[in-house]
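Progress against Task 2.4 (sequence-to-structure conversion) is shown through the following example record, which the project officer requested during the mid-term review.
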Amino acid sequence: MIRLKALLVKEFLQMQRDKAVIFMMILIPVIQLLLFGFAINTDVKHLPTIVFDQCLQEESRDLLSSFTASGYFDVKEVATSYDQVNAAVDSGRAKVGISIPPDFAENLKHGRTAAVQVIVDASDSMTASSAISAAQVIGQLKSQNIIFSRYQQLTGQKLQTPYDIRIRPWYNPDFVSAYYMVPGILGIVLTMTMVMVTSMAIVREREVGTLEQLLVTPMKSHELMLGKIIPYVFVGYIQAIIALSVGVLVFDLPINGSLGLLFILTTPFIVASLALGILISTVARTQMQAMQLSFFVLLPSVLLSGFMFPREAMPTFFYYIGDLIPATYFLEIMRGIILKGIGITYLWSQALSLLAFILGAFIVSMLKFQDKVA
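Structure tokens generated for the chain above:
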């Protein structure tokens, strides 16, 4: 403990001298949380839309009103030809083009199917999915209303639907994207900063020449690694507190579960991220290599952890690759406590997975470090 205490004092003094790094580590989470929290929205609305209405009757105007009232479509242009619609979609001025034929109202009045063409720019799959889903729902609702109205006119009775499916969305009933994204952003930011800082720890000591001085002391390799990790655990907690405060104050993020449990389970994730950085530091020979390896780790953490895309939709191979990423388990912990309000009864497996990752990373790091020293 005396040797470890001396190393911790050294690390805190070194951290205190490098005020720019500490300032950036505290400022970056706030900037990224605000940036991604406002910018990332999985429910794409207000799509610029161009309309080519050849019918120009009450029925076509009523349909277009339903499109605009949904909030997904904003009519920016009114076309006078198909070529104008195509040009607007090709140029990117419009993401959606709605074309109503001249016989639209007549077909409705005579009980025939009235076709409407909706052109969607599918180069952006997320935008296209929102537009297609909204257009299909609008068409189904309008068709249902017309069928019910005709049935009542013919029989004098109201038509009842065969199924009554009552959907009750739990945890985020208003589908607020920030509630889902902010906990994920916190996990990604912690991964990025913790891994990058510690990945250069041992490499920096080697380049500066102080590693040899540490090796001639009675200090053990595991004490050296603990001394590199423990100071940044406090920095990670500061980042987590600041990010959660921003999420609650700016995005009105609800914390339905235990805040104490949230911080307790944040500890193994911070240590796991730091241990991953130490592992990179024992593998890399220069700080540039350590930086490149850190970015190599960050990309899978974003793509395979469930931060942006559901893991259930991934191929089996990549799904199991995501099981090797600490951020995968931390996102489940964060979203489980913050949104669902669940406790350790449902989160113990994620906590054990993080502890297993810490143990494995430490063992491999010590072996690699001893090989380099030898």
